[in-house]
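Lecture notes, part 5. Sequence design as translation. It can be helpful to think of inverse folding as translation between two languages: the language of shapes and the language of residues. The source text, in structure tokens, appears below.
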């Protein structure tokens, strides 16, 4: 069957594109390789406990709410509150003024670095102000020029002047955050505590803005997956087609055909690739492209990204606990970044390479004692998400895909998962949650290998390309984000986390909308 548009990938970028295409009346097919849409935004239930399998909460950034408003979707959200903890001290991030609490926390643990901490806080405040400008409005991409004319004139136009003055300042802060902070301190433990829960070589402007971004997180009642359910229902109500368990394995851009793993062939006028970018160029055979310029461009692009790596992945422990949520509420907020020791994870040493199991286990014990945990407690946001008097807890750490893959190839992957689970449990039991190991009803985990399989991302990445790639194989200048959806192949545009860096949920949605706008424009031209 032929469609105006085919969208490949049922994550939030693909769903956004499909929603706006279907809304505009275009025949649209969305193909998703898994049995349900959502990708890194999903919720699942096990024995009455509801867990979020991917992202823990949703960052608005002037994107999510305007997008839902334009689609006419009603998703019930609650504010997602965040805490930061170090050893036995916890602070809650409720306003931007809590940066002073963060400064006091750092001063308490690193008294010999108070002056350096003061200088770092000055820089963080400056970056927070820049981000307030960048994200402090409804993104213009989701505005209706006719309906929102007053907002455009009174808010957007003055903002554009502010942004024009701010953007160059942001671009100067593209240095990796740890290198940036070394201008102010050489205290490695302090550097670790500030930066170790960020991706490796995260740009300073992105990493140090998080105290502002934390205030813009929300949680859909029922779990993050409710957001996806609403998007899926909208597309289907607009007569869009969603085909799950449909993996695309070949693309013929000259004939405008895609072939799925079952042998099904589907025609399109426009194709939107909202999945892992390496797959796009793997599924196009350059030898079948007639235009020599396009053929050369596809070959060059494939070669460029061949050795590029995905960003950090995660190891996640899911716990069902015979313990009331009040216990956890007394410790911290429902979304909690916790570091058990002030030492910093550099002390664990570098990630082990091709070494024996005993050496890896020794490193893992040190790593899990020193790293920073992202802890999420769904039932603290929504009391229906766990049985009465019980709690589901999600505990994640950034973790290396290559090490996990190596362990799997060595043949002790399942033992590795159990070993990591126990390291995490013992660490939390000995620090912030004493007694937790005695109330576990069930536990299970996911690894970077799981993420690669389920989400279909290079290296199990959770936010697109690694910042360590040089050159970065994606557009990274926000004023030029319109370029991010382009591909060298006529009739194909792209969307999602592989199109722009730094990426995340807002970027995935934003590029999804930009892709839809471009396709709608091209389809109108072809009429």
């Amino acid at each position: 069957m032929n469609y105006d548009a085919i969208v490949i990938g049922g994550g939030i970028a693909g769903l956004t594109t499909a929603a706006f295409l279907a809304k505009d009346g275009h025949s649209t097919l969305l193909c998703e390789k898994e049995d349900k849409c959502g990708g890194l935004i999903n919720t699942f239930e096990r024995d009455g406990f509801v867990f979020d399998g991917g992202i823990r909460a949703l960052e608005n950034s002037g994107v999510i709410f305007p997008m839902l408003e334009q689609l006419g979707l009603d998703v019930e959200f609650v504010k997602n509150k965040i805490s930061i903890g170090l050893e036995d001290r916890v602070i809650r991030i409720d306003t931007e003024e809590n940066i002073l609490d963060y400064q006091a926390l750092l001063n308490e643990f690193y008294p010999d670095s108070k002056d350096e901490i003061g200088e770092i806080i000055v820089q963080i405040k400056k970056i927070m102000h820049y981000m307030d400008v960048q994200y402090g409005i409804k993104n213009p991409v989701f505005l209706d020029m006719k309906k929102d004319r007053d907002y455009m004139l009174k808010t957007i136009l003055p903002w554009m002047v502010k942004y024009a003055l701010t953007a160059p300042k942001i671009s100067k802060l593209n240095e990796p955050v740890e290198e940036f902070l070394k201008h102010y301190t050489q205290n490695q433990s302090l550097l670790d505590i500030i930066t170790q829960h960020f991706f490796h070589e995260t740009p300073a402007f992105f990493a140090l803005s998080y105290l502002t971004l934390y205030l813009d997180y929300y949680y859909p009642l029922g779990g993050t997956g409710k957001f996806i359910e609403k998007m899926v229902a909208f597309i289907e109500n607009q007569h869009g087609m969603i085909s799950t368990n449909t993996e695309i394995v070949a693309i013929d851009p000259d004939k405008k055909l895609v072939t799925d793993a079952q042998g099904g062939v589907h025609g399109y006028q426009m194709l939107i690739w909202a999945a892992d970018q390496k797959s796009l160029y793997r599924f196009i055979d350059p030898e079948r492209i007639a235009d020599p310029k396009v053929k050369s461009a596809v070959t060059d692009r494939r070669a460029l990204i061949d050795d590029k790596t995905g960003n950090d992945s995660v190891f996640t422990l899911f716990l069902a606990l015979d313990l009331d949520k009040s216990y956890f509420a007394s410790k911290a907020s429902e979304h909690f970044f916790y570091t058990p020791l002030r030492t910093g994870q550099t002390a664990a040493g570098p990630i082990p390479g091709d070494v024996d199991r005993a050496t890896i286990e020794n490193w893992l014990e040190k790593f899990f004692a020193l790293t920073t945990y992202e802890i999420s407690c769904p039932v603290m946001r929504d009391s229906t998400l766990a049985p009465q008097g019980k709690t589901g807890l999600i505990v994640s750490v950034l973790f290396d895909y290559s090490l996990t893959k190596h362990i799997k190839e060595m043949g002790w992957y399942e033992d590795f998962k159990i070993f990591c689970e126990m390291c995490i449990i013992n660490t939390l039991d000995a620090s912030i949650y004493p007694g937790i190991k005695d109330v576990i009803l069930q536990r299970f985990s996911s690894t970077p290998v799981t993420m690669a399989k389920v989400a279909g991302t290079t290296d199990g990445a959770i936010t697109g390309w690694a910042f360590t790639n040089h050159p970065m194989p994606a557009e990274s200048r926000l004023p030029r984000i319109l370029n991010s959806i382009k591909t060298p192949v006529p009739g194909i545009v792209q969307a999602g986390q592989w199109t722009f860096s730094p990426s995340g949920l807002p970027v995935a949605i934003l590029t999804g909308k930009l892709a839809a706008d471009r396709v709608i424009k091209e389809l109108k031209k072809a009429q």
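The translated text above is only one of many valid answers, since several sequences can fold into similar shapes. The mean pLDDT is 96.
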